[in-house]
């Protein structure tokens, strides 16, 4: 049968129309709005509220059928409410026939619980991945996971973004003329410190030897500095600051060991009490973080610098939507 003899219905080739839509939960709308603006769109109008007993209700105010949906929600305090709202938003999109659902987690809740230290403990980071997959997520985008292995917990593509370029470019521009050293707050993050060292021109490395009581969360003791830091401006790097105990003890230990100055650089500013007081009173000259999590006005202090992660997230969303390469954003390293 020739092409002309075929029935008209057999010749129909409908080219799929791609539609990018960005949704935001209530935990960090400012970041989501900034991301949407950089992409050149607006957040989809959403109704969200809590019933009297705490149950969460979500409804989108326009059709999402066939869309490439990106759902932004940072898991800030109250953490479990933010996670549950995120899951409900994904379920609503799935039932409204969104074509593909990408979960954007600037901060991945429970990422620290990525392995068993003792018997009868959960691996909550894996549970999180299972919950989002079951809710209907096709893909995850996260920033600076606590450990790389969390990527393997989700049964689908995971784009692991790194805030290091944002933070290190700021440090290089402001302190590049100083004699620098990059310091890891513990031996487990030496690889991250090595990457920082390369970005800052191969400056020396050091780390803090510390012990942690597995029976007491957020309790660590900075024992001694391993590496040459005397007379240098030390850039103390970590993925998150929760109560600030580990990082501030490390900063004080560096100063006591002869460091000229200490700069703290971390991606996620959780800032649970008494982090603000500890950071304000410690030996660090400046504390540099990103806005992956909202920072309440009462947690702001002199010496705190907050850099926007929105350009990085918006660039990643564009690459995913256009079937491009997220890895290209990090020189092939992501």
Q: How are the SSEs placed, and which strands pair?
A:
Layout: E1 20-24, H1 29-39, E2 46-50, E3 56-60, E4 68-72, H2 79-95, E5 100-105, H3 124-135, E6 139-143, E7 158-161, H4 164-175, E8 180-184, H5 190-199, E9 205-212, E10 220-226, E11 233-241, H6 245-256, E12 261-269, H7 275-281, E13 286-290, E14 304-307, H8 310-321
Parallel strand pairs: 1-4, 4-5, 5-6, 6-7, 8-9, 8-11, 11-12, 12-13, 13-14
Antiparallel strand pairs: 2-3, 9-10
Helix pairs in contact: 1-8
The tally of strands reads: 14
Percent of residues in β-strands: 15-25%
Envelope shape: globular
Percent of residues in helices comes to 25-40%
Main sheet specs: 7 strands, mixed
Q: Topology as H/E string?
A: EHEEEHEHEEHEHEEEHEHEEH
Residue runs with pLDDT of under 50 for 5 or more positions = none
State the separation between the terminal residues, measured CA to CA: 50 Å
Strand-pairing-aware structural class: alpha/beta
Cα-based radius of gyration, to the nearest Å: 22 Å
Q: What is the arithmetic mean of pLDDT?
A: 92
Number of helices: 8
* Strand line-up in the sheet with most strands: 10-9-8-11-12-13-14
What does this protein structure show overall?
This protein is an alpha/beta fold and 334 residues long. It has eight helices and 14 strands. It has helices at 29-39, 79-95, 124-135, 164-175, 190-199, 245-256, 275-281, 310-321; strands at residues 20-24, 46-50, 56-60, 68-72, 100-105, 139-143, 158-161, 180-184, 205-212, 220-226, 233-241, 261-269, 286-290, 304-307. A seven-stranded mixed β-sheet has the order 10-9-8-11-12-13-14, sandwiched between helices. Helix 7 (275-281) links the parallel strand 12 (261-269) and strand 13 (286-290). The chain is globular, with a radius of gyration of 22 Å. The N and C termini lie far apart (50 Å).
